[in-house]
Amino acid sequence: MFTLKPIDPAAIPAALQKAERYRLLNEPEEAESICLDVLAVDPDNQQAVTTLLLALTDQFHHKQGACCCRAGELVPRLAGEYERCYYSGLILERRASAHLDHARPGAGDGAFEYLTEAMEWYEKAEALRPPHNDDAILRWNTCARLIRKYDLKPRPPGDEPLLLE
Length: 165
Known about the structure:
With about 160 residues, the chain is an all-alpha fold. It is about 70% helix and about 0% strand. The chain has 2 domains: about 10-75, Serine Threonine Protein Phosphatase 5, Tetratricopeptide repeat (Alpha Horseshoe), CATH 1.25.40; about 80-155, Methane Monooxygenase Hydroxylase, Chain G, domain 1 (Up-down Bundle). The protein has 7 helices and no strands. α3 packs antiparallel against α4 (about 60-75) and α4 packs antiparallel against α5.
């Protein structure tokens, strides 16, 4: 119905600043839209890919399913192995946080699984990290603290969730 208008490539830095500002204002859908406009003009722009991924994870508490898939699809577009590991962990950590906030039956089991998988990704990122970059360690510690805070445990054997067809 409407054809999207392309942005001027010279406007990309300012657009990305706006996207970050929208994220900080808790308006991730606006940030997402801006990132999509940037990527339409510059498909390999790493800042836009990263900001889009983060904007999608900001929406996990409201629309987890679609946003999780889309965030995961962005990981291969990240240029470095460290970034791919780190953001894979971040997606899982934020999924766990959304699970805990919704407090549905079995949410703790699912959150534990997401957090421990995130911790594995953070350990991989830690091994690849640039000098003086402890981001993966900080995130790993956050996951460990969440597990302790909510006394999360692995799902008991044979207690797999039922999947509806």
